[in-house]
């Protein structure tokens, strides 16, 4: 049965206590699947998460002729029989991956067509940097009603490109284009998120020659051929931060395995500043809890190593329990507070403004985007069978945290959005002491 026929029923109000394992990172697993297409031999990816975005990417790769064998969480991707360069949208819908396929497949074919890009509606999310990159490397791109068609004559050529903003996706496109382009490429103002560094490691293990430096610069010496490799997908740092916020918000105690605490970077600083605590138990095992009564803060989202935009939603739920006025300034996406309205229905006291609060003016200043949030706490959350509808993937997990701390029973619908990025949510949470079920609506 399709996941849009189900809702989550959560009875909350108790501290959430227990242990769970973070799954493989969505925002690396799907990129690693695309990277596999650059090779002439199969690639094996371990610890792939059972999530909708992997399923969507799987369908797109199979549709162009890649052979994929799944054995538990291990995917073996054999690109040797790829015959088509026309990527269709699978029945399960689109995600952000088509635009990355454009660059990755352009070494193999002299014309590649991909459908329009999907993903969460959290802002305009243009793809202009990707298209600009393809042109820098010597290709051309036509935008059609259905999507994008990229063409090249001869081999792609190494280039120098400065991204207007350190975009994760555009950096990935540049990497895919540069690894097999002729000669040297320089990508300036590149993204350096842990998933990007992991992608660079994956590409290096396929034979790519990529140098990083202390600034946001990546230098690539193009090679004529890449070979398949084997790599585990790193644990999801977004998921791990969400479980930390669940512990902090519910005054619980949650141990998360499978995560490198280094990847949580500044999250750990912000978490501690508001009263959260953590303990490093084993190399990839971190315990999160509340150290004292929560206090308010000012947070600004930013590219890595800043506070990730994907952490702000669970963190906001925790701030509803802090004593005082907190501010979140979202500087990565112009429209990522769609979830606050429903939160107010559960008793939170939040307000949005178009001003850049709490920091420097960002790219969205003097426009009409409500991209700063004021959260007044503490507000006990309560739910009398309230139904809340998920607006986007990360907001989905934030709603689970809100429902977990709200006294009473809540229903969450639109869970197909959440399940695009989080796997086995119900069994993993239910084996702690949270009353959560996936029921027919
Ligand atoms: N941007 C442009 N033009 C472009 C590309 C990006 O203007 O051609 C702008 C975007 O509109 C946005 C900013 O640059 O304002 C950053 O976008 P970026 O390209 O970095 O984002 P992305 O690659 O589309 C990935 C993750 C997001 C995560 C961001 C930022 C994937 C599939 N998605 O998106 O994750 O928020 O990087 O870290 O990797 C999520 O997982 O829920 C999610 C949205």
UniProtKB/TrEMBL annotation:
<dbReference type="InterPro" id="IPR036968">
    <property type="entry name" value="Enolpyruvate_Tfrase_sf"/>
</dbReference>
<dbReference type="InterPro" id="IPR050068">
    <property type="entry name" value="MurA_subfamily"/>
</dbReference>
<dbReference type="InterPro" id="IPR005750">
    <property type="entry name" value="UDP_GlcNAc_COvinyl_MurA"/>
</dbReference>
<keyword id="KW-0133">Cell shape</keyword>
<keyword id="KW-0963">Cytoplasm</keyword>
<dbReference type="InterPro" id="IPR013792">
    <property type="entry name" value="RNA3'P_cycl/enolpyr_Trfase_a/b"/>
</dbReference>
<keyword id="KW-0131">Cell cycle</keyword>
<comment type="pathway">
    <text>Cell wall biogenesis; peptidoglycan biosynthesis.</text>
</comment>
<dbReference type="InterPro" id="IPR001986">
    <property type="entry name" value="Enolpyruvate_Tfrase_dom"/>
</dbReference>
<feature type="domain" description="Enolpyruvate transferase">
    <location>
        <begin position="11"/>
        <end position="427"/>
    </location>
</feature>
<keyword id="KW-0132">Cell division</keyword>
<keyword id="KW-0808">Transferase</keyword>
<dbReference type="Pfam" id="PF00275">
    <property type="entry name" value="EPSP_synthase"/>
</dbReference>
<keyword id="KW-0961">Cell wall biogenesis/degradation</keyword>
<keyword id="KW-0573">Peptidoglycan synthesis</keyword>
<dbReference type="GO" id="GO:0008760">
    <property type="term" value="F:UDP-N-acetylglucosamine 1-carboxyvinyltransferase activity"/>
</dbReference>
<comment type="similarity">
    <text>Belongs to the EPSP synthase family. MurA subfamily.</text>
</comment>
<protein>
    <recommendedName>
        <fullName>UDP-N-acetylglucosamine 1-carboxyvinyltransferase</fullName>
        <ecNumber>2.5.1.7</ecNumber>
    </recommendedName>
</protein>
